[in-house]
Design a protein that fits this description.
Number of helices of chain A: 19
Structural class of chain B: alpha/beta
Helix content of chain A: 10-25%
Largest sheet of chain A: 7 strands, mixed
Distance between the termini of chain A: 62 Å
Shape of chain B: globular
Oligomer: heterodimer
Chain lengths: 713, 443
């Protein structure tokens, strides 16, 4: 790797500090234990802009006026005086605060940001004690809902441009812009359209005042009353590190807990806003059973476990378990032990396929940003599966990397990262072996699984027994673990052929009508346990709020006793056993709050299971259905993010569109023998010719090969 | 008796120099051929020897600026020449006349400069309101299109601004040219290292460009002898306000302001008393009527803590209310502040509010102090010079006419509605001195 950076000595307020050359002055001062206050400065947004002027300092040898420290970097022999020792800097700092406050509404008592507001804190520490402003303050209409999820208060805004810089330079959507000029400048969305996209919520966390706030928690929180639980998001395989913040036992918001190798402090809107699904009206809080005449109704836990025992014993080895990939590894392991060791029921519908050979090409996600080439394979948009990976790829492109859709033109490049959303990672496993990436620093491969912990669930299921499953016919009992499995049409199809169905779900809407016994499920926000993310990093979920019913591990352990299988109700204990089998014996405590990435394994041959080609080559276009980021049982239960759900669109390559005489925005009919859907056409520059892409929820009834034609209407 | 000395505008009185043929008839484009026969470094040396300083207002040595551009082997990115024709300073209208009357001389200067800094790309950023100037420059370039031997391998793009004063600041101009919001960048890096599209860029003023061919025609040493020490050569000065014959006058630097007003512009109309002169456009510190015997050059004006700026001399007679002048200037800067940095955005608005209260006779002595304090808190804290010059200009009105400001505290404006500002800082009908000057209706 690179050589040791050159160290330089900088004197700040008479304290001498050594830092690598080029370190920002704000960070240099922090290293010396000195604060240089900032508002607009945020290194994750790109080069410093020097807009707010809060960081003004006196620097020897520079023009005799205050300098914006955020735009300067440490040079050897530099002598800097902050407001602590320089009257000039102190006056400048006070001037900046006075100017910011001149038109600020000072409505701190009713502002959600109050208590964690940099403006409030810096005013308290450095600001003037009284105001000299006696004119009417500037007013704006407020609040402006820039989307159903975010509200904007332009009077509180101090125009630091963090939000517009995020939109322009990080998510690269260009939707948030500044309008007008001078003191009339205001933040708005381009053409006043709602601010949409996977990452909008980040601006609520970037905003240094209470100007951009999530509507979900507006007027519901006082920051000092929040309790923060360090956990991990359970909504996709990235596993962003989050701080789940609760008040009076309820989750009130989710903030990022920057893991620089995983998420760099960004979250997607699903991870940030979906938490309120745990308060959905159809949340199951008691076990429910179908009974003759009485219909579907709540039963006691004793009755429920009796019935579960009866169903399991009756079906014996003829049980099939459908897993969601949202279970913790402990929960999946416990369920597997109960069924596999208890009654020898080995058959399962697993959420993922995962090629273990990829462990030889393991990398932190942050390595994408430093790559020279990023090869993105697969038909599904990265952002829909693993949103933060999309941000890492964008950063790589800004850093000069080539972003390719095929593994060619790689000659002479050192750091190559492969990313694939198809076929369990087998394809990139073979490709990585061919390119010899195992021995190359900064090179590696990522498969993007479909589910948050599908990898871990597969590990856990396999660890419980070595016996080979035999597909039972007919199915005696179908156990449906989790809402995602319950919402899966393939699992529903199995249920049709099962003699009985036991479902473990959070929501009634998902299972009413076809399950015989329902046990309440819990959310990732309500459990302790471990997830394995797409890098192969083990990360800990921590229980942030008490679930309305005992969690899965608690009752699985009780049920297992009836089958003579000893399973601890404590995730830590279950983990130790599982870790010894799968994860090199790492202990629960060792995972910590900011998990490390395990070392690469040795190179093994990629799996050689020949997968059947799905295309039937009957002409027409190949349909790619994808599961959109904003979909699924949890998303459906959060009103504030419904606007983010995919439009009824079909994506076409420009080439195919031209051939078919279809323009962007045209109404088209997508059909395959017998069924058809009316959708709006959207031309894509990245889609391969010969394919069309439709979100799962708009592709119902369509076959793998479709015809597209312009609508006559 | 001071006289005009026309070098930049030379020949334009007798010939229609907007036509390529006529410009060539008076020796046009021969200096381009001479410069191209020289090594780029030799061209830069010649301009250094002429001691030409930038005519946009910062007075930086042009040859030195060019010498900061890395050589192509030091930076493989394209090099750009960006010409700042976004002349928006109230009181300045010289570039407009240069573009309209000697467009080919200006273009010749651009092409010589492009050769000196080894650039094949010239961008001319023309103030949006300068439609006539734009059309004349485009017509001149059309003529050049037929003459590949003059054009060489240089592409010239003319871009019209969209009406923002701040885009006359070089980094805001570059942002605007890149299609972004016109806001200044934090410097360093300077444009010479990372300017347009993050590439080495020279940003020069229109008059600077139009001065290049005459420098080669006269010879750099001869040119350096014009004017006074440190302020070599001529300047096109815009005279406006309360003078008999407002307009642009090209003079050798070193003429006094009194000569400018009384010899060239015919003095103050109606024999009225001269009250104040703003010597270099709205952003400069005001001079009282007693300070006008100063030589019009960089060093002499610096001694009076003011500047030539963009050479807009604004003359005000005894009827002018200095508080109303303060409001006009402050309103302008409040309106033109880009909104990026805090002191300028919030401070200029606050200044206007206080000044309006003063004019209404509702302010106390404490608020007059507050005005100066606000100016002081803006000054030196901003990202670019816009806010700073607003503060220093207004503070200079208070400092030099304090009695008049104090008189406003007690019962309001002594001038009432009889303070005629309509000819001050607006290019109006009185600027008809030159045949091509732009006419903007009063009102």
């Amino acid at each position: 790797m690179s050589a040791q950076p050159e160290l330089v000595t900088v004197t700040i307020d008479d304290r001498s500090v050594q830092v690598p050359k080029g370190t920002g002055l704000v960070e240099t001062a922090a290293a010396a234990g000195i604060e240089i206050p900032v508002f607009c400065y945020e290194p994750r947004l790109g080069a410093a802009v020097g807009a707010c002027r809060m960081c003004l300092c006196e620097v020897e040898g520079m023009p005799p006026k205050p300098q914006a420290a955020c735009t300067l970097t440490a040079q050897d022999g530099m002598v800097v005086k902050t407001a602590q020792t320089s009257p000039m800097a102190a006056e400048a700092q006070e001037a900046t605060l006075e100017f910011i406050l001149v038109n600020h509404p000072l409505d701190c008592p009713v502002c959600d940001k109050g208590g964690e507001c940099p403006l409030q804190d810096l005013t308290f520490r450095y600001g003037p004690g009284s105001s000299r402003m006696q004119f009417p303050k500037r007013t704006f209409e407020k609040p402006i809902p820039i989307s159903p999820a975010i509200s904007l208060d332009r009077e509180r805004c101090i125009l630091c441009y963090r939000c517009t810089r995020f939109s322009e330079g990080v998510s690269e959507d260009g939707q948030l812009v500044a309008e007008n000029r001078g003191s009339q400048t205001l933040i708005t969305t381009f053409e006043d359209e709602p601010y949409t996209g996977a990452f909008t919520g980040n601006v609520t966390e970037l905003c240094p005042v209470g100007a951009l706030l999530p509507t979900q928690s507006r007027f519901l929180i006082r920051p000092w009353e929040l309790q923060a639980v360090p956990s991990v998001c359970g909504m996709c395989p990235v596993g962003c590190n989050v701080s789940v913040e609760t008040r009076e036992g309820k989750v009130r918001r989710i903030h990022s807990r920057n893991h620089p190798e995983v998420d760099e402090g960004w979250l997607c809107d699903k991870g940030r806003f979906v938490y309120s699904h745990i308060y959905a009206r159809d949340r199951i809080v008691d076990p429910m059973q179908r009974a003759h005449r009485r219909g579907f109704g709540a039963v006691s836990w004793d009755e429920a476990l009796d019935e579960a025992e009866r169903l399991i014993r009756a079906a014996g080895t003829r049980i099939v378990t459908a897993l969601s990939g949202s279970e913790t590894i402990e929960q999946a392991f416990a369920l597997a032990q109960l069924l596999r060791r208890g009654v020898g029921a080995h058959s399962a519908v697993l959420p993922e396929e995962f090629d273990e050979s990829l462990a030889a090409y393991r990398l932190p996600l942050s390595a994408i940003a430093d790559a020279q080439a990023v090869v993105v394979l697969g038909d599904e948009p990265v952002v829909e599966r693993a949103p933060i990976v999309d941000l890492w790829i964008r950063q790589a492109r800004r850093n000069g990397a080539r972003i390719l859709d095929a593994a060619d033109k790689l000659d002479g490049l050192d750091r190559i990262v492969l990313i694939d959303s198809g076929d369990g990672g087998e394809r990139i496993g073979r490709l990585a072996a061919k390119l010899g990436l195992a021995g190359k620093d900064g090179s590696g491969a990522f498969y993007l699984p479909e589910t948050a912990n599908g990898r871990g669930v597969v590990d856990a299921w396999a660890a419980a027994s070595d016996d080979e499953p035999v597909d039972p016919e007919p199915i005696g009992l179908l156990i449906v673990s989790g809402d995602e499995a319950a919402a899966n049409p393939d699992v529903r199809a199995l249920a049709e052929h099962a003699e009985a169905v036991l479902a473990i779900t959070m929501f009634q809407g998902v299972v009413v009508g076809w399950a015989d016994l329902v046990l309440p499920g819990t959310s990732y926000l309500e459990r302790d346990g471990t997830y394995v993310n797409l890098e192969g990093r083990l990360q800990r979920l921590r229980r942030s709020v008490i679930p309305p019913a005992p969690d899965e591990l608690a009752w699985i352990s009780k049920l297992a006793e009836r089958f003579g299988v000893g399973i601890s109700p404590h995730p830590a204990v279950v983990f130790e056993e599982l870790s010894a089998k799968c994860y090199g014996g790492i202990s629960y405590a060792d995972i910590g709050e900011q998990a490390r990435l395990p070392a690469r394994s040795g190179v093994t041959a990629p799996s050689t299971t020949a997968r059947k080609a799905k295309a039937d080559n009957s002409g027409g276009l190949r349909l790619v259905r994808y599961r959109p980021l904003f979909s699924g049982p949890a998303v459906e239960r959060v009103p504030e993010i419904q606007f983010q759900r995919p439009a009824a669109e079909v994506e076409l390559s420009a080439k195919d569109a031209r051939k078919l005489g279809i323009a962007n925005g045209d109404e088209v009919v997508v059909g395959s023998n017998g069924s058809s859907r009316e959708l709006r056409a959207r031309l894509s520059r990245t889609l391969r010719p010969g394919t069309v892409r439709i979100a799962e929820e708009h592709a119902e009834g369509l076959q793998p090969q479709v015809e597209v034609s312009k609508s006559n209407a | 008796m001071a006289e005009a000395r026309e070098i930049v505008l030379g020949g334009a009185a007798d010939h229609d120099l907007t036509k390529l043929a006529e410009y060539e008839a008076v020796g046009g484009y021969t200096q381009l051929a001479r410069a191209r026969a020289m090594e780029p470094a030799a061209v830069i040396d010649a301009v250094l020897a002429s001691n030409l300083r930038g005519r946009g207002g910062a007075f930086f040595q042009t040859g030195r600026k060019w010498s900061f551009i890395p050589k192509p082997d030091q930076n493989p990115n394209p090099h750009y020449l960006v010409v700042n024709a976004d002349e928006s300073e109230p009181g300045s209208f010289k570039d407009n006349e240069i573009l309209q009357r000697v467009p080919h001389r200006f273009i010749e200067g651009c092409l010589i400069t492009a050769h000196a800094v080894e650039s094949q790309h010239v961008f001319i950023y023309v103030r949006g309101e300068y439609l006539e100037a734009y059309e004349i420059v485009v017509a001149a370039l059309e003529e050049l299109r037929e003459r590949p031997e003059l054009r060489g391998d240089v592409t010239i793009v003319v871009h019209r601004g969209a009406g923002a004063y701040i885009c006359g600041e070089e980094t805001a101009l570059i942002e605007s040219l890149e299609g972004k919001r016109g806001q200044p960048r934090s410097k360093p890096p300077f444009p010479a290292i990372s300017g347009l599209y993050a590439s080495p860029t020279v940003v020069n003023n229109v008059e600077t460009m139009a001065t290049i061919p005459p420098i080669f025609q006269l010879g750099p040493e001869e040119y350096a002898k014009l004017g006074v020490e440190n302020s070599a050569g001529t300047r096109v000065v815009s005279l406006s306000g309360h003078v008999e014959r407002g307009g642009n006058y090209e003079i050798e630097q070193g003429v006094t302001i009194r000569e400018l007003i009384y010899d060239l512009a015919g003095g103050v109309p109606g024999g009225r008393k001269l009250k104040a002169v703003i010597p270099g456009g709205s952003s400069t510190v005001v001079l009282t009527g007693d300070e006008i015997d100063v030589s019009y050059d960089f060093d002499s004006l610096l001694q009076l803590k003011t500047a030539m700026g963009s050479a807009g001399v604004i003359v005000m007679d005894e009827r002018v209310c200095m508080v109303q002048l303060g409001i006009r200037v402050s309103e302008f800067y409040e309106h033109e502040s880009c909104g990026k940095c805090t002191p300028c955005r919030e401070g200029t608005r606050w200044m206007t509010q206080i000044l309006r209260k003063l004019e209404a006779g509702e302010a106390s002595a404490r608020e007059l102090d507050l005005l100066l304090s606000v100016c002081d808190r803006i000054n030196g804290k901003c990202l670019c010079p816009l806010g700073e010059t607003a503060a220093t200009a207004v503070a200079s009105y208070v400092a030099k006419f304090r009695d008049e400001y104090v008189a406003h505290l007690d019962g309001g404006c002594p001038f009432g509605d009889d303070s005629p500002l309509d000819h001050v800082m607006a290019p109006v009908a009185q600027h008809h001195h030159s045949p091509a000057a732009v006419e903007v209706p009063v009102g």
